[in-house]
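A reminder from the course coordinator: this example appears on the midterm review sheet, so study it carefully.

Given structure:
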């Protein structure tokens, strides 16, 4: 039985903040969107890497957490009823005789649209997993590769592994909440920022958290729940550390995935675009956010928001040259307000 072919106006690949804001900008123009993401929920880097950490450079927001920003963008996009295809990648791309693009996902979903928007940020994030022999036994219950809800770790004994910014930042952030935090690093030098290294030093000096130099060589526990980890110290001594949750922050592998095979003009892991339209070398395919590159590019979320606004108007004119674009301001344009579901009181 053949899969049903879904038809829409715009396919957005990636559900980070920039992809989510593109739903809003497209919706104001009357364009319907389907979104594809290999993660199991919207949010991209904000959800995976810093859901509860504050962001300070979003206009009008003195500070906002990554997860709150994502939730607000989802609320803002909700009047336009976007459809999400999560836990799958955009795998194959085909140009149809109609001029539309056809994307098939790794789960067999087939979508046709005149517009494709690549908004995958730095690419698909995959954690580098440590080579612990018993790792698979504990991954479902007591090994986490990202922090989604800090409250989960209240009054727990945490062991964090790594020497970069993620490991240091989470050790510093979680120590007031946890029963005890131990940071394990394979050498005495850290890769994190100087401020984080100094803060870590101050906390260890005060006895607020522990730092152990060595490598985890055994995981101890029952039924997927850790109770201790064994660490071989730099001098060869074995130390056992109480542990309820193990959080290895050993870096991420970032891949563009199948998009890299789509014939786009790639500059390393970035997609070159025309900065006036954000169109790629493939007509009808656009790229916005951290994944795109052009002279003078600044990698900020607010830059991606601007790119989304410009891109949607350019894409609308390309896909529907005979339609009149809805211009004006949401504060005064009744057509835009109607699309937003705003009614007079």
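Designed residues:
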């Amino acid at each position: 039985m053949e899969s049903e072919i879904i038809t829409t106006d715009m396919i957005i690949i990636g559900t980070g903040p920039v992809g989510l804001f593109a739903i809003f900008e497209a919706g104001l123009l009357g364009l319907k969107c389907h979104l594809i993401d290999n993660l199991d929920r919207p949010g991209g880097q904000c959800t995976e890497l810093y859901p509860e950490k504050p962001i300070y450079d979003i206009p009008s927001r003195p500070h906002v957490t990554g997860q709150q920003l994502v939730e607000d963008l989802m609320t803002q996009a909700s009047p336009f009823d976007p459809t999400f295809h999560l836990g799958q990648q955009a795998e194959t791309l085909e140009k149809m005789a109609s001029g539309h693009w056809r994307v098939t996902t790794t789960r067999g979903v087939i979508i046709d649209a005149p517009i494709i928007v690549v908004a995958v940020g730095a690419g698909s994030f995959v954690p580098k997993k440590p080579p612990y022999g018993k790792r698979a036994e504990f991954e479902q219950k007591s090994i986490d590769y990202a922090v989604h809800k800090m409250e989960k770790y209240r009054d727990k004994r945490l062991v964090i592994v790594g020497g970069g910014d993620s490991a240091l930042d989470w050790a510093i952030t979680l120590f007031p909440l946890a029963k005890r935090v131990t940071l394990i690093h394979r050498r005495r030098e850290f890769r994190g920022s100087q401020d984080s290294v100094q803060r870590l030093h101050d906390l260890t000096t005060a006895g607020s958290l522990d730092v152990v130099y060595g490598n985890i060589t055994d995981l101890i526990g029952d039924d997927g729940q850790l109770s201790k980890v064994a660490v071989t110290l730099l001098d060869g001594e074995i130390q056992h550390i109480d542990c309820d949750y193990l959080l290895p922050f050993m870096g991420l592998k970032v891949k563009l995935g199948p998009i890299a095979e789509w014939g786009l003009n790639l500059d390393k892991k970035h997609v070159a675009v025309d900065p006036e339209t954000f169109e790629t070398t493939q007509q009808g395919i656009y790229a916005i956010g951290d994944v795109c590159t052009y002279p003078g590019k600044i990698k900020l979320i607010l830059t991606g928001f601007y790119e989304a606004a410009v891109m949607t108007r350019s894409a609308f004119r390309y896909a529907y040259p005979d339609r009149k674009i809805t211009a004006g301001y949401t504060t005064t344009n009744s057509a835009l307000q109607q699309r937003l579901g705003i009614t007079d009181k």
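Residues 5-125+253-339 form a domain with the FAD/NAD(P)-binding domain fold (CATH 3.50.50.60). The chain has two domains: 5-125+253-339, 129-250.
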